[in-house]
């Protein structure tokens, strides 16, 4: 966890300039653009029996096998409506490349340091742990996702300890 | 400027390769000093280094290699014969050259180290031996067959601090070119190295990914072809198909290297260490050609070296000790590598002193690594595994080779880092074997594709024994139940069955096919049957590791991409067997901890699978299921008497029966048919009559030996009931059935 905590601490002081945004159940999220490898439409998934529910499956990203994490479940939000296909935000983390499943892709947004604020105390639950902070944009709030933490699921901890 | 940098880099790579071969050749030469071919190869390696470094202006290097070359050329011409002294001298030269090369690599210059001692030693050797040998030419004169043109300019070079003047350079190059001719004509090895090429690994990785994309595009086109009738288009697609497959195969192979690349330096390591310790050690290698992914080759280099050093230093005894113990004076270290179960197995065994479990126990206690209580409960095998604990060392005295208490734990950690396991087996007095299993993180393996619960899975072919298909009546009656466990009688042996969908908690898919497909698998010397919905083809698959999020899943060894572009999981046969509780042994405690908690609880060290039965109304007993060959029922009417024995005709042989109730002096229940447990005993069968088979349980067995008596090993609590553990060997021996066989 040390590298991510380190990243966490430094990023709060000098927030990223460009943020790739996406929607998740009415919430407006962003990931630092430099961490995003690519954004792709829905990919067919191979489900993994016995895996933690947060892990939605495996996708074939041009020959690379990437774990897809259902961000809604990771954040404790309600499941997506049947038939609604998620999009993949493929991010680079210290544990390798991971795909985050989101509802809708937004634009890349320029943000200023002055707009940044720590996550308000009223923000509760898993969302608070996974959010580095909030940008107060003109018309709405942008939650900056901590992609390192988002990629950690129960069970990967156990794996880490064993090795 | 950059051109000369390139030249130097190429020189370094080439020299390192030459030196690696040199180590091996020199050790080999010691055994067979007159092998002209090897001598020639050694000479050429040094000659090439000397020639090139003169050209590049590395005077120190040139000085060292020059004296070595002079000595070698005389060896090659038969003026003198290689012995241990000369070998040591030459190996010293090789080390010096390595050091200089390392300095050049890191700083670009030759460094400040002084090599006059090495040079002097080689010159001494040259002169001494020259006088001792019946020399034809004067010692100082250049050897007849050696390329005289090279000798002359560089003979002056060793002491000269200034770079060689331009004229000799030109000469050296010419000489080198001349010399190259015979190399290619009379030495096939040279031709082989000429036909290979160095490629950047990053490029190979990139090619591999591109080929993956090409395969997917190819598959889409193939699918599209099925709707087309244009003959020329179909033909072109067929060609594309074939070429793509071959390309894919070729690119994947480029990443693989034979393990022999790592092993090649071990003869030298063993030789040096053995002579330092005053021992005689021979090294044998089997499976040099076993291919491994290059990243794995890198990762196992150091652990393997450490294990081998340990074997020479602690394992193999001194020649005198060995003779006293009735062994050959020369010890043997055997390296063996082979593919099995989707893994690469590497075994390192020696025929040395072995590890005394008792000593390890004492040492572990002294160092506070285990408590007295723990140490007594551990089996000898487990005790020996304690040497993998940090801070453990059994060396009687600390040598500068090994025995500082760091080592085996590092070996274990390094191997576990790449997802491998280490096990150790040792018999005091006769040797130690270390078994390393490493996954093929990136390798092509043949696998059987199956479906279950609507998903496809790959089963590595190496774990596969056979496929059994039960149809019609067989499908419904062929599978038997004992308690909750399912079995199939495969040629009379009880094969535990696991439904893949239930092991993976998937919903079964209703198929119109009412047949049962059993994939018979082998894991850790145990067999079990995996019931799947559909069996597809076998395919060559590329194993890719799972992300860190999924490391805890022991049922899967990795994933692969199928022809249609979808991902399929690769089953880890051993992990699956343990999870489904049909294989009780664990790999390493590390992996067990990573398993889901319930699986971990049931697969801890002492879990055993036991068959529980009533020997008589009052005696509830159990014995390990692994001893049981079959369970049978015989109608009483079939029983016959042969002398004073009860027998039954069974599969064309006469099966002797022993009544357990009678053995333990209990009244025999008049059940019909008789319930019989069949054992294999020294290649013959014997049946034990019991009253009733109760269940099969899997749990941790703590044996209470207070109730030990003839025929009973002890007792334990199974399913909340006290159960005696039957000593089947004793019962059968007491029945006097196989005296001849036992004796």
The fraction of residues assigned to DSSP E strands of chain B is 25-35%
Q: Residue ranges of chain A: pLDDT <50 for 5 or more in a row?
A: 4-11, 155-163
Q: Any idea what the shape of chain A is?
A: globular
Could you tell me the radius of gyration of chain A in angstroms? 15 Å
Major beta-sheet overview of chain A: 6 strands, mixed
> Structural class per helix/strand content of chain B?
alpha+beta
Q: Based on helices, strands and strand pairing, what is the structural class of chain A?
A: alpha+beta
Chains forming the largest contact: A-B, 34 and 36 residues
Summarize the structure.
With 163 residues, chain A is of the alpha+beta class. Chain A has helices spanning 2-13, 71-74, 125-130, 147-150, 156-162, and strands at 18-24, 27-32, 36-40, 55-61, 64-70, 87-93, 96-102, 104-110, 116-117, 131-136, 141-145.
How do the strands and helices of this protein lay out in sequence?
The complex is a heterodimer of chains A (163) and B (743).
Chain A: H1 2-13, E1 18-24, E2 27-32, E3 36-40, E4 55-61, E5 64-70, H2 71-74, E6 87-93, E7 96-102, E8 104-110, E9 116-117, H3 125-130, E10 131-136, E11 141-145, H4 147-150, H5 156-162
Parallel strand pairs in A: 2-11, 5-7
Antiparallel strand pairs in A: 1-2, 1-8, 3-6, 4-5, 6-7, 9-10, 10-11
Chain B: H1 2-31, H2 36-56, H3 59-76, H4 84-107, H5 116-132, H6 148-155, H7 166-186, H8 188-194, H9 201-225, H10 231-254, E1 256-258, H11 260-263, H12 266-277, E2 281-286, E3 291-293, H13 294-315, H14 319-324, E4 331-340, E5 343-350, H15 357-366, H16 372-377, H17 380-385, H18 408-417, E6 421-427, E7 431-439, E8 444-452, E9 455-460, E10 464-470, H19 473-477, E11 479-482, E12 485-490, E13 493-499, H20 500-503, E14 516-523, E15 526-532, E16 534-542, E17 556-561, E18 567-571, H21 573-579, H22 589-594, H23 597-602, E19 607-614, E20 620-624, E21 628-634, E22 640-642, E23 645-650, E24 653-659, H24 660-663, E25 674-681, E26 684-690, E27 692-700, E28 712-718, E29 721-726, H25 728-734, H26 739-742
Helix pairs in contact in B: 1-2, 1-4, 1-12, 2-3, 2-7, 3-4, 3-5, 4-5, 6-7, 9-10, 12-13, 13-18
